[in-house]
């Protein structure tokens, strides 16, 4: 579904949002796209277990747990942070994933950094038996193939600019591959660091894209009062809920770019709502603990 964001923009600019967040109640947005062909491949190879990695409030962890429940796989989540083991009930993401049948293995931050080493993988094989490994954030060639299905042919011919939030770069790589040469793709990085363009270059051949890292708000998962207030007022004006980790920062960036005149006259911009709304509860929990303003909307 596509919605127009009806505000008075300068230079006859039009802004639309594609609601990928509404694709599935649990396997949200781009994670649905990224898992689709991985699930098919796991089935084809005869696997019965999916194993993946993620942080405390990971959209990807919950999506894999949901996909396992729906498509008949056992799921194992390797979770960053040993301290979380006794706090699952305080963490809405992990509690929900557990409810969907996911089994956890908690590791220290140091061990987590080495999660893709062959010694750690063989340890996991010994502990859990055979599994289909889905990488952290879900990005691999099959995930990108799934993300190439986000844009319809009408969207490819109508829109001049497509924007999305970037974490590992898989989603924007799929969008780039399926775009037309006339379109410009803009990725808004949700994390600090200039390495993302390198990663994306491994997956794409086109050059009609750029990454902005001016709107990460201090880094991955970091927010400030300005962002929270922006998200609350965006929701009041449009009834569109955005998540504070990815889509919220991207939409903040797009509106800032429009205001600064970075788009040509008559630009038709499509932003991709990649989902992530499950993370609002966890974020509000953390904000409340710090006596900060919270997000006034929640999925439930
Ligand atoms: C995971 C995620 C992203 C980042 O996608 P990548 O393919 O890792 O770049 C963007 N938005 C939301 C809501 C996500 O959950």
From TrEMBL:
InterPro entries: ACCD_DCysDesulf (IPR027278), TrpB-like_PALP (IPR001926), TrpB-like_PALP_sf (IPR036052). Signal peptide: none annotated. Residues 12-275 form the Tryptophan synthase beta chain-like PALP domain. Belongs to the ACC deaminase/D-cysteine desulfhydrase family. Keywords: Pyridoxal phosphate. Pfam families: PALP. Its cofactor is pyridoxal 5'-phosphate. The keyword Oxidoreductase does not apply. It comes from the Bacteria. This is 1-aminocyclopropane-1-carboxylate deaminase/D-cysteine desulfhydrase. It comes from Flavobacterium proteolyticum.
